[in-house]
């Protein structure tokens, strides 16, 4: 009976591994109460609770057993399938990610299909657990080691992965850190301008989340750092315009703490860098709260993602 169960589990591992590798743009992975072990409909994958529990335990035990064996085509193929399944079922455990890295190192750095597959698996692992550091760490390792073949479409898909995980889990700082790393590592003016525009829409639709605002502030810092030395006025104007923009949001959402925090961060930066904001913008804020100056007088400047 035990051997029969093992055979069934191995078949399920093989099937799940193939689904994760082959299915384009997998939209979600969920755990449900169902008799069927795996269900795939319209790019939505579901595992039964029983399968999730039993397959996770079986895969971990089998992986540790096979990793000790001598290399062979059968052994390597099984470990590939097991590690594919385990990085999705248990993405916090970095030993499975490390095994995937070793597989990558055996391949040529010109193999774009290998890069795309690994990035896809990283994205799949976030479907079940969106706030997890290891998938983002693996993606950064891949993009750094395969930097010569990273295309614009790859960056776009990575930004979409960050957006989906941030949408799935509030205050997902792993996602925002990775997004900021992408902009810094693959910087170009077009990408920066697109991100500034995108972040504006995100802030307006997630008005109570400070992460997106702090990300936008970091984009402004990057933009300022890449300006020419003779365009100091343009540098200052970006922050002046941002203050006016946030003041308008504060007037519309006066009770939103995240907006006040962001406004305080901007004003502190402007004050520290001797950037004069429009008095009319500050006057509009004081009309709402005459304690405005005292509220942000002692707030520390911290540009790191919160």
The tally of beta strands, per DSSP, is: 3
Oligomer: single chain
Distance between the termini: 52 Å
Give the biggest sheet: 3 strands, mixed
What number is the mean pLDDT? 89
What's the SSE pattern? HEEEHHHHHHHHHHHHH
Strand percentage lies at under 5%
Shape: elongated
Class from helix and strand fractions? mainly alpha
How many helices does DSSP assign? 14
Helicity level: 55-70%
Strand order in the largest sheet? 1-3-2
Low-confidence regions:
none
Rounded to an integer in angstroms, the radius of gyration calculated over CA atoms is: 24 Å
What does this molecule look like?
The protein has about 300 residues and is mainly alpha-helical. The protein has 14 helices and 3 strands. It has a 3-stranded mixed β-sheet. α5 packs antiparallel against α6. The termini are far apart. The mean pLDDT is about 90.
Tag the structure with descriptive keywords.
306 residues, mainly alpha, 3-stranded mixed beta sheet, 3 strands, 70% helix
Task: Write a concise synopsis of the structure shown.
The protein is 70% helix and 5% strand.
């Amino acid at each position: 009976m035990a051997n029969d169960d093992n055979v069934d589990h191995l078949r399920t591992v093989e099937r799940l591994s193939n689904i994760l590798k082959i299915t384009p743009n997998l939209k979600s992975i969920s755990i449900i109460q169902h008799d069927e072990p795996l269900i795939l409909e319209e790019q939505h994958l579901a595992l039964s609770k029983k399968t999730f529990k039993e397959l996770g335990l079986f895969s971990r035990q089998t992986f540790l057993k096979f990793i000790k064996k001598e290399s062979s085509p059968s052994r390597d193929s099984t470990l590939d399938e097991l590690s594919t399944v385990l990085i999705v079922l248990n993405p916090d455990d970095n030993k499975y990610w490390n095994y995937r890295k070793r597989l990558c190192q055996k391949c040529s750095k010109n193999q774009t299909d290998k890069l795309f597959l690994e990035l896809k698996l990283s994205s799949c692992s976030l479907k079940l657990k969106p706030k997890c550091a290891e998938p983002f760490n693996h993606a950064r390792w891949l993009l750094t080691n395969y930097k010569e073949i990273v295309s614009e479409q790859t960056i776009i898909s990575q930004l979409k992965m960050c957006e989906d995980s941030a949408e799935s889990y509030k205050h997902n700082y792993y996602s925002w850190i990775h997004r900021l790393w992408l902009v810094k590592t693959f910087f170009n003016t077009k990408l920066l301008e697109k991100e500034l525009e995108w972040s504006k829409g995100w802030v307006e639709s997630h008005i109570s989340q400070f992460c997106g605002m702090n990300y936008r502030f970091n984009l402004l810092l990057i933009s300022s750092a890449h300006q020419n030395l003779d365009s100091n006025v343009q540098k200052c104007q970006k922050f002046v315009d941002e203050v006016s923009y946030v003041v308008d949001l504060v007037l519309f959402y006066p009770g939103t703490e995240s907006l006040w925090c962001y406004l305080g961060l901007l004003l502190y930066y402007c004050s520290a860098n001797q950037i004069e904001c429009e008095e009319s913008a500050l006057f509009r804020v004081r009309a709402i709260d005459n304690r405005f100056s005292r509220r942000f007088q002692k707030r520390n400047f911290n540009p790191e993602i919160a």
